[in-house]
Specification:
alpha+beta; Archease, Possible Chaperone, Chain: A, domain 1; three-stranded antiparallel beta sheet; single chain; about 25% helix
Length: about 140
């Protein structure tokens, strides 16, 4: 054999945007879970409530993604649909309230891709262009 595979840490970056902050958060969640599975194969059978907080909107985006990854891991699920009910600010903190919908992981049904370990602060960007909220971040895989 003229080549060999080496263990290597590879990450996945993405950009997510929406016409509202809530929509951009949901698009980021889809991008994150799309790294792991074909979202079209994941039925919306179970709903899991999601709540987390951070000191600013960009950090809240990362906290949201990591909370979703944690809840998916704890519940043995993939999520394919997301809803942000509200994002509120109080006492210098931002809190997101939402839900994720999906089903139990089934390797016979789901086309498994790469495991997403965590959303990172590396390359984290947040901007508003016109009415579009745009995030960039990197997922550790």
């Amino acid at each position: 054999m003229a080549y060999r595979y080496l263990d290597h840490e590879a990450d996945v970056g993405f950009e997510a945007s929406g016409n509202s902050l809530e929509e951009a958060f949901c698009e980021g969640a889809k991008a994150t879970f799309g790294i792991m599975v074909d979202l079209r194969q994941v039925a919306v059978k179970k709903t899991v409530k999601v709540q987390c907080e951070a000191d600013c909107i960009p950090n809240l985006f990362i906290a949201w993604l990591n909370e979703l990854l944690s809840l998916a891991d704890v519940n043995g699920m993939f999520f394919s649909a997301f809803k942000v009910d509200k994002i509120e600010e109080g006492s210098g903190r931002f809190i997101v309230y939402g839900a994720a919908k999906g089903e139990a992981i089934d390797p016979k049904k789901h086309t498994l891709k790469t495991e997403a370990k965590a959303a990172t602060y590396f390359g984290l960007k947040y901007e508003i262009k016109g009415k579009r909220h745009i995030f960039q971040c990197v997922i550790d895989v």
